[in-house]
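Example protein
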Amino acid sequence: MSWSDEVDAIIDGDLTAGLAYVTPAGGVVVTAVAPIGLHDRAAGTVGFTTSLGFGKKLERIKRNPKVALVYHAREHGFADSDLYVLVQGIARPTTDPDRDYIENVIGPKAERFMGSPKRGVFWDRWLQAYYADRVPVTVEVERVLTWPGDELVSAPPPQSPPKNGTGPRVKPLMMDLPHRLLGWTGANGFPEVVPVDARTAPDGWIEVESAAGLPAGERRAGLLAHAFNAQLIGLEARQHTGWLETEDGARGRYAPHTESKFKAPANKTVLLLANGFLARRGLKKARRAAA
């Protein structure tokens, strides 16, 4: 597997990317991750890091390793191309953190995007769990699509409606953040993800439209809206899983079934304090699950 110099610069330089993975019911979750330039063009791999505290995500990826990474946002990174890049591949999570790899590979790559880490007696102890909590996920690339140019949407068969109905189950979150991604399971079993415009309707549905296209019929899908600042300070994300009904290949409506959201502090010191606390909690959770 290979890709162009332009695509390689994007993979190497984007501060954040969208990660899409398949749920047991055949839906897709779309979330934001920090790829920090992890890739090996010669080996045909890309990657990202995640937290051991997100055990549900890691278990789903282990169960179904077909994932997609979406390089779609150029702010605060190093690439300047306007291409939207969709990478599909097989994910190989490393759930036993390698301290040497974290310090000598992950650390320098993260510093390039996030700036120099805080040092000192307090910060070294407080952030120890945060760095120990990070694990790399390597993705063996199967397919690289760029847009404009390639067709991002295949022709997957419609899915059977869920037994609890297809209509909205939760109040829709506002999708007014600058980056919005919609994902579903494609005909080849890999997630397909497109950029969308999204507007909340009075009836609780979310109206979606994409110039890149939408799949015909009805199916489970995941929706993400997110924003971020330099060094990922003050990032915000709003996520749904739900049901997609497409009208004409470009427009459709989306019923949210689950929702989650978070907003990180806009102050780096406060953010690091929060990261250290959440990492400690996540490590305890992961160790309990392993036991």
Remarks:
- The mean pLDDT is 90.
- The chain has one domain: 5-290.
- The first helix runs from residue 5 to 13.
